[in-house]
Amino acid sequence: MRTTAEHRVLSALSGEPISTVRTATSPTRLSDVLDLAAGDSAGVTTIDSDGSRRRETWLSFRGRVRRIAEDIRASGIGRGRIAVVAATEPSEILALFWAGVVAGVEPLLVAEELLDERGGDGEWLAALSHQAPVHALLHAGDAQFPVVAAAARWGLTPVALDLGPGDGRDGPDRADDGPDSRIHFMTSGSTGAPKVVPQRHRGIIDMALGAVAVNGLDSATVGFNWMPLSHVGGMLMAHVRDAVIAAEHISAAPARVLADPGEWFRLVSEHRVSAVWSPNFAYRMLASAAEQIPADGRIDLSSIRFCLNGGEAVSAKDCARFERSLGRLGMPRGTFAPAWGMAETCSGVLYSPRYDPASDTSPTVSVGFPLPGVEVRIVAAADVEEDGVGHLEVRGSMVLERYLVGGDLAKSTDGWFRTGDLARIADDGVHFVGRDGTRIVANGVTWNSADLESEAEQVDGVVPGTCAVTSFRPRGAERDSVAVFCAVDGNASEVRAEVGRRLEKIIGVPVAQVVDVPPSAIERTSIGKVRKGRLVRRFIDPAPRQLWTLDWVPTASPGAPRLGGAGQPPVVLRGAGLAHSAVAEHTPGELHDVLQRWRREVEPARLRGRDVCVVIETYEANSDRLPRSHPVAAFLRATAHGAGARSVRTIWVHPAVDEQALDGVLGGEHTPDADLFLGPHGDLWRRVRTPVAIDRSGPRADHFVILGGTGRLGEALGAELALRGARVTLVGSRTQPGEDRGDGISRVTADITSSAAVRGLVRTAGWDPRERTQVVHLAGAPTPAPQDVVERLIGPKTDGVREAAGLAHALDAHLAVVSSVNAHVAGTGVETYAAACAAAETTAERVALVPTTVVSVTSVSEARQTDRTTVALGEALGLDEVSVMDIATCLLAEPARSVLLGVGEHMPLIPPRDSEPTPPPDTGPTSATGPAEPELSPTAAHLAKALRPLLGADSARLDTSWFHMGLTSADLPNFARTVTQHTGQKVGVLELMRYPTLAELADYVEGSRKRSSE
After folding, report:
1. How confident is the model at residue 925 (pLDDT cuts 50, 70, 90)?
2. In terms of DSSP H, where are the helices of 419-491?
């Protein structure tokens, strides 16, 4: 129940009575509309995405629709049943829509992205069928949508229909719809979660009758729509409106105009179109296109009389530019009509015809007055201080009565529907301030986001049509901030800075964030509205990926003996280096000797198809004090998996445990691959993966000092953290070109292997004791040691962690070590790398004197988001690739426990095998992004193809090491697999370390081929 204050009406407007447009002869059902249209000579034209055209008179179209309707009846779908219209081309959508109407079926129109590959295998249809009484799916006979095959699985009847002319005969003169029959629309979700909105035929017709009367449209109109017909605007506000007045109507596939805006001008000129409509962003796009068209008479826009601007905020500046640009091509002035509506109101119910944008000085554009039969009012909003601004409510026959799916119907008992918009009423009609929670208010002034976006796109380097301006509330803040999202073509830091300066001069407050995003990341609704909330959640305040930790839980004593594969007991690996104190007692060189000894002693044929147990002797009596990983165990786990072991587990055993108890554990039935701990009192523990809850409401680090940060991953991670408002210092062993880049990131060349160097870095980094500081360690590049390649891999990781721990202690900072999940997920070809990662993690746990988090990540993309190819590769390898966004979000959250990032909930830490080892997944050849360098040999050129997707088109060099080219240690496992797939030669991480350039690796591969052929 609303309070009295919430009922306080600030202002109100009413349209003319509905009786001024609805007479005794007016249609009440949509089949009557089709009959009236068929009585004239006008027709309907469709232009599909492939350019194919079809024109029929309304009379001929009705005959074909009646025949299709008879086929729908014959399928057994009863009158009043709801049926999904599974079509994306205009010719198919209109035929199925009208045939459903005439057959008495209630069509449910859905967006194209739900029908093509973006909609997956039809999970959305399964959810819909559980929430709503949807009975059928109508589609053209040759439709190949995934949902067609999935429909029966979810209890829907798929009805394949012949949409052609058939035998040329019309169907029977019969219509089974009524005034209370409904059309159903899925909303865009811009006001929240998507909903299904049902609208009665009578309400739809009332809207159309009012719209044609207010805007002066009649049967001489030629209407053109290129917005999706699954949207309420395309279907009702354009198509049904033209049918009501028996006007000529043209519907083109959106892709025709989006791919080539010139198509819009050719169609308008060719068909002498008089009525068009688009959201504001499209008028901006069309104005840019018009400026490139010569005014030579070949494009004649003099027929245009009505330009409806609706679907998103209207910009006076964009409208004025559109009038100027198209005026060169003959379009008259005074054609614009800003409008407002939504699916819940049968589309547009507020119009401002003959709008003059050149003379409009208001900060927001009026969308005019209500249609006949419509009332609007402004109701006081408790959290709004601006005079006269409040909640917009609307009432009339066009307003929905209830949602079919979703939605909290904010409708009073007397029929008022709260739209979720904030608005005010002035002398020239209704002005929209914005949607609740997304208004742009600065210095007490409400700004039109479309105007600000238009201003931002005037900056050189901003890609036209990609700008989105929105407000958001930072975590812990009391006020909203302004953010700008845009794609940049040029120097990103310079363009972002200029966009911020330009808008700050207009609104009078700083722009908090200007985010450079690729055009593909700017999600839109079916009619092109940017999903700004998703941009904020994805790029400014993203939720962290699910983080996991490894916990010990008590488990039951062993059950019945379990054979170790092929009727044999498990293979037990125990001995040298397999003690909890291994890292403390061995230098990297000594650890190298241990691993080499195991490499000689382990016989791969003995492990194939068997269960393998790696036994570690530990003097810890409490499982909580055990490390997460062990370098020798990680090495052996990877070795066993590579040899084709059926399962691999690590068993930690206290020396007080006798051999008989250990034998009972080794032969018992346990979860495959689960690590076990056998305590001194006979207690048995199992290691499990548990989710980590992240509290993002607490304080976070203000200053990040990233060691190993001047490489490619460090630069990308630093930029992401800086974008989130943190101060960033990147520390590396070599100077990068363009050190002062004006991006607010400090870059320091330092080697912190001594106490004096640490003190110097503390001074250089500008440490402030009032800041919360976090030291982030990214494993350093290997140092030259040709005779000891394993030590080269392990030393930089363990020594670097010790140095990072010392720096964190000096700064009184939290330490975060970004390691690799290979310490825990050990696959073929990464044995030594797995050992090095485990050594680094164990070192961090043992030497740090400050709070420490180890973040074990899967393969990392330095991009802000991962593309489909890399995601597919990650899935094939059993891992999820993570982006720098994921790592930054994790570091900012500062989890109190060491975590796994990029590991799926059900992914085994050691992939199981039935018997023989599984070959690496075939992800297909990788295309080179640029021509091979002339000096590369054929083998080196082939290797460059594998390398370039990781680095970019021109980064591969013959004699430059992987790390100096920008590769990170996190890249090596995937690079090794890719090289193996490209060359057919087994190449692991160790080979990449031993031969760290294209030239050296090419010589190794060619030599291996020669040896194998001898």
Report:
1. very low
2. 449-456
Amino acid (1-letter code) at residue 584: A
CA distance 331 to 272: 11
Q: Please list the helix, strand and coil fractions of the chain in percent, rounded to the nearest 5, in that order.
A: 35, 20, 45
Strand partners, 611: 647
CB 804 within 8 A of CB 817: yes
Using CA atoms, how far residue 404 sits from 133, 347, 400, in Å, is 9, 17, 10
Torsion of CA 977, 978, 984, 990, to 10 degrees: -50
- 507: part of which helix (H) or strand (E)? helix 492-507
DSSP character at residue 621: S
The residue whose two tokens read 């407050």 is 509
With a CB cutoff of 8 Å and minimum separation 6, the contacts of 875 are: none
CB of 675 closer than 8 Å to CB of 686: yes
CA atoms of 882 and 569, how far apart (whole Å): 39
Element (H, E) at 256: helix 254-259
Kindly provide the residue ranges of all beta strands, DSSP E only, lying in 187-264, ordered along the sequence: 196-200, 222-225, 248-252
Number of H helices, E strands in the chain: 32, 40
Q: Is the pLDDT assigned to residue 125 strictly greater than 80?
A: yes
CA distance 875 to 285: 38
User: Which candidate, 464, 391, 463, 398, places its Cα nearest to that of 432?
Assistant: 391
Least Cα distance to 652 among 689, 615, 611, 613 occurs for 615
SS3 labels along 319-374: HHHHHHHHHCCCCCCCCEEEEEEEHHHCEEEEECCCECHHHCCCCCCECCEECCCE
d(Cα 216, Cα 221) in Å, to the nearest integer?
A: 10
What residues contact residue 353 under an 8 Å CB cut-off, 6+ apart?
214, 215, 216, 306, 337, 368
Sign of the C-alpha dihedral computed for residues 970, 973, 978 and 983 taken in this order: positive
Per-residue pLDDT, 782 = 43
Mean per-residue pLDDT for 593-617?
Answer: 88
State the DSSP code for 235: I
* CA geometry: angle 908, 599, 995, nearest 5 deg: 90
Whether 581 shows a pLDDT value over 90: the answer reads: no
Rg (CA), the chain: 34
How many C-beta neighbours within 10 Å does residue 300 have? 15
Q: What is the DSSP string of 978-1005?
A: HHHHHHSS---HHHHHHS-SHHHHHHHH
Cα dihedral 941, 945, 951, 955 sign:
positive
